[in-house]
């Protein structure tokens, strides 16, 4: 009975690993695209002023990095094709 329990545990562990490998192979490009979308999502932030606290203060200028992030196309996400997995 003890041997059967060990065999069942090993089979369940192998099935779990096979499931994870299948999900990564089938949906890996979509997962990566979602992660990139979440990390480059525009964050709504409060306006930073140049040390002035009154309502008439001018906001700071937008940096080049912010402009580049906004200008980057969301279509540049690499995807895998069937040829990538051929051995």
Topology summary:
Blueprint (H helix, E strand, L loop, with lengths): L1 H38 L24 H8 L16
Give an account of the 3D structure:
It is built from two helices and no strands. The model has no long low-confidence stretch (mean pLDDT 75). It is mostly helical and 87 residues long. It has helices at residues 2-39, 64-71. Helix content is 53%, strand content 0%.
Structural class call reads mainly alpha
Largest sheet: none
Secondary-structure element series: HH
Helix content: 40-55%
- Helical region count? 2
- Percent in strands: under 5%
β-strand number: 0
Write down the Rg. Answer: 24 Å
Overall average residue pLDDT: 75
Gross geometry: elongated
Distance between the first and last residues' Cα:
42 Å
Low-confidence stretches: none
């Amino acid at each position: 009975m003890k041997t059967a329990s060990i065999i069942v545990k090993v089979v369940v562990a192998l099935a779990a690993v096979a499931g994870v490998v299948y999900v990564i192979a089938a949906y890996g490009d979509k997962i990566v695209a979602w992660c990139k979308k979440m990390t480059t999502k525009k964050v709504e932030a409060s306006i930073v002023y140049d040390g002035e606290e009154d309502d008439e203060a001018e906001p700071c200028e937008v940096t080049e990095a912010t402009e580049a992030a906004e200008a980057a196309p969301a279509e540049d996400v690499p995807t895998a094709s069937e040829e990538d997995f051929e051995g």
